[in-house]
Amino acid sequence: xxxxxxxxxxxxxxxxxxxxxxxxxxxxxxxxxxxxxxxxxxxxxxxxxxxxxxxxxxxxxxxxxxxxxxxxxxxxxxxxxxxxxxxxxxxxxxxxxxxxxxxxxxxxxxxxxxxxxxxxxxxxxxxxxxxxxxxxxxxxxxxxxxxxxxxxxxxxxxxxxxxxxxxxxxxxxxxxxxxxxxxxxxxxxxxxxxxxxxxxxxxxxxxxxxxxxxxxxxxxxxxxxxxxxxxxxxxxxxxxxxxxxxxxxxxxxxxxxxxxxxxxxxxxxxxxxxxxxxxxxxxxxxxxxxxxxxxxxxxx
Length: 300
What we know:
- InterPro entries: CdaR-like_regulators, PucR_C-HTH_dom, PucR_C-HTH_sf.
- This is DNA-binding transcriptional regulator, PucR family.
- Residues 233-289 form the PucR C-terminal helix-turn-helix domain.
- One of its GO terms (molecular function) is DNA binding.
- Keywords: DNA-binding.
- This protein is α+β, with helices and mostly antiparallel strands.
- The chain folds into 3 domains: 2-53, no CATH class; 65-203, Alpha-Beta Plaits; 212-299, Arc Repressor Mutant, subunit A, CATH 1.10.10.2840.
- Helices cover 48% and strands 12% of the residues.
- It has helices at residues 2-8, 44-53, 65-76, 104-114, 145-156, 171-188, 200-210, 214-220, 231-242, 247-253, 258-272, 279-299; strands at residues 24-28, 34-38, 90-96, 118-123, 128-134, 161-164, 197-199.
- The protein is globular, with a radius of gyration of 22 Å.
């Protein structure tokens, strides 16, 4: 059956990882295997016939009926599962496991432990999953995403990447937010070998960086030319910016005296001429430091 399909629709066969999800037609074959075609290469009639003959499938690793319903709603625009109304507010967690299906069983056990309040977990592909976490009175945002990536590595013995979405409070908001966040997630995936943990805001930032022309990026990087090779200074300044320009908080995170952090912030201002104590300047520098981080990984 597979060979007949491949012969008839050779022009449309595709690797599921090579095309955007909205263009994938994934078919469940009688022997239990799956194949993926590019919808753009098929007519509407061909798509309809194939979907009727072979059930257009969600990934076979969906945990249970409730999660299958969630997948069908968010991916196939079917009716939302009624049970989700009891879990607001909540957020999406997007997980990338490069090793793929061989580590999914371990992930299904480890992820709900790492993210208490997990109400749903389903797989978008052999390497990408979505977890839905309710935000209740027991919700704890203390563990950093980077530390969670490390925990997954110790539990699953494989490298992974995590993107955390923002809280949503209604069905309509939930559906729209998923469509936005999954688009951002797909965009930042090529950077997972450089950065393995993203908040939604970081995904948005890196999404914007992706579309800044290279010559404009290089010109803008001139602002931090005199400090870009001083990693201890730029790391401290990044922590300061991420601490809402709070010297004491940044110093605590970097395990240094407050005066040392103040000295480094002043040193950065002196060397670059950019007063990062002012928010507009701080925002620009944060973008430049993010670009610098990517460039450093490119040279590693």
